[in-house]
């Protein structure tokens, strides 16, 4: 007769055997998993090391290219713009880019007549109506605004009348120009500073890609302003930092509308030595009645820089 104790021992033995089997099976599975994970980790580590090396090599190559451009840049642009006058309009531009471009313009024989720094308010949709109204109020007698309703074109038309020469002569008097710039400064659209003297050419310096809900619209303001400035004088170059050729960058917006911006030259890597040289070379092309799209982005279909 099978006793209760026998049943208890049997059941215990069964569960003990099951537990041992599970443990042994799990141990083997665990070893296999650990082996697979370890192999995957080693593979990923190798890939990371490879990518890190490639990144470091690319960074080193970029530094070498910038150093080379910085050394040969002055020689490449020397004498290309003798007796020309250039004004700078900046929109969220980097000071180092500005200083480098100004230095190269001097080597090219040009005189920089000044800088006008626009504030973020120019591209603020909440202040668009105010800016449109202000451009009409400040428009000097005899000057005309473009037949457009967007703020970029209107601001470009207003600034073109006071910052740029036409046929080698100022389009407005010094008092008229000062009134316009004072009005824009007082409304918070221009950073306080000395008013630039009228020039033949203009460089619009900006940053990279913008972010935020209204990024594309903000970039369009700068692109359209630069386009109108190009039409107001002897030529303009819109130069932005790496990323400016993206869809939310001013250069990218300008290049997307080739019909409207055909006469405007663009540079998408002014934060590099080659991009700064390209900016000055592009001004020379503008004087010769040509325009191009330069830089390192895929949309720079004219190459890295114009031929010297």
TrEMBL record:
Q: Which domain of life is it from?
A: Bacteria
The UniProt entry, under InterPro entries, shows: MctB
The protein's matches in Pfam families, at most eight in alphabetical order, are given as: MctB
Q: What is this protein called?
A: Copper transporter
Its lineage reads: Bacteria, Bacillati, Actinomycetota, Actinomycetes, Pseudonocardiales
């Amino acid at each position: 007769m099978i006793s209760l104790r026998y049943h208890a021992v049997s059941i215990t033995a069964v569960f003990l055997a099951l537990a041992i089997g599970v443990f042994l099976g799990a141990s083997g599975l665990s070893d296999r998993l650990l082996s697979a994970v370890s192999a995957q980790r080693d593979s990923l580590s190798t890939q990371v090391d490879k990518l890190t090396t490639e990144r470091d090599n690319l960074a080193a190559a970029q530094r070498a290219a910038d150093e080379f451009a910085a050394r040969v840049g002055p020689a490449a642009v020397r004498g290309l713009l003798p007796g020309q006058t250039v004004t700078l309009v900046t929109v969220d531009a980097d000071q180092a880019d500005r200083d480098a471009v100004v230095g190269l313009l001097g080597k090219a024989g040009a005189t920089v007549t000044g800088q006008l720094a626009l504030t973020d308010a120019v591209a603020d949709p909440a202040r668009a109506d105010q800016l449109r109204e202000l451009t009409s109020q400040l428009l000097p007698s005899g000057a005309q605004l473009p037949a457009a309703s967007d703020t970029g074109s209107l601001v470009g038309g207003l600034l073109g009348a006071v910052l740029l020469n036409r046929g080698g002569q100022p389009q407005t008097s010094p008092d008229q120009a000062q009134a316009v710039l004072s009005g824009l400064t007082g409304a918070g659209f221009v950073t306080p500073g000395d008013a630039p003297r009228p020039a033949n050419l203009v460089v619009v310096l900006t940053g990279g890609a913008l972010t935020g809900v209204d990024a594309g619209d903000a970039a369009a303001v700068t692109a359209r302003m630069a386009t109108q400035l190009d039409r107001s004088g002897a030529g303009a170059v819109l130069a932005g930092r790496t990323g400016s050729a993206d869809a939310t960058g001013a250069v990218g917006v300008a290049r997307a509308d080739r019909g409207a911006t055909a006469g405007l030259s663009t540079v998408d890597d002014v934060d590099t030595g080659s991009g700064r040289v390209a900016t000055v070379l592009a001004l020379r092309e503008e004087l010769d009645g040509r325009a191009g799209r330069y830089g390192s982005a895929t949309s720079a279909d004219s190459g890295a820089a114009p031929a010297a």
